[in-house]
Amino acid sequence: MSGFKWIGATIGWALGGPIGAIIGLALGSAGDAFSSGKYNPFLSEGEASNRKSGGYSAEQRPQTHSGDFEVSLLILASVVIKADGVSDPRELDYVRSQFVGMYGKERANKAFKLFKEINNQTINTRQVCLQIQRMMDHPSRLQLLHFLFNIAKADGMVIDEEERQIATIAGYLNISSRDYNSIKAMFYNSSDNAYKILEITKAASADEIKQAYRRKVKKYHPDKVEHLGEEHKKGAEAKFKEVQKAYEQIQKERGL
């Protein structure tokens, strides 16, 4: 399997609409293409009709696969990295290292080559995010958000421009402010971060703390993204551990 033909076997819905245009241009710039007649990189006519009419309902939404998540991640990572007008080498290295950890060196190198071509494009963030929102399930979108914060902090801190860009992306992805602030709190140091992660205040009772923890465990459990493949399930464990850490910190502070 030469060049980027590996991607054809793993991407489903992501190659239609604005994402399809971005990936198509990136593949063309990289000097490769899908084998003629073997794989259609655009949505079928029926799927295109669903997209034009407002997309799928939550019940109809097609299952997100590893490749769909991957190309969404590549595009949004480019948006965040360029938020401050500079592509920091540490952030680029973080993207590469994460892909190596998830997919292995060979596939990661091909993905990163594609990422560099995407990074040269001007991306309509709203259009891309609206496509993702229509097609990707909520747990996978939360995982995307967590990864974007990881990228932003790869150089040591999340700067204001990056945080504003991630907040904009979260809005387009239809991620609630509560979910957004919970994930954001995982990347900052403050006295009330543990409470923010659990989506409660310091006035919460012991029972409310336990209830909040159980809700978060259910929402952020790695099994929620097991359909993306083992590589992404492992990535979700970091987010899950932050919830556990926050709960343990509050317990310790209150002597529970």
TrEMBL record:
CDD domains: DnaJ, terB_like_DjlA. Pfam families: DnaJ (PF00226), TerB (PF05099). Gene3D superfamilies: DnaJ domain (1.10.287.110), TerB-like (1.10.3680.10). Residues 193-255 form the J domain. PROSITE patterns: DNAJ_2 (PS50076). The keyword Membrane applies. Keywords: Membrane, Transmembrane, Transmembrane helix. The chain crosses the membrane at residues 6-28. The keyword rRNA-binding does not apply. This is DnaJ domain-containing protein. It comes from Bizionia saleffrena. The lineage of its organism: Bacteria, Pseudomonadati, Bacteroidota, Flavobacteriia, Flavobacteriales.
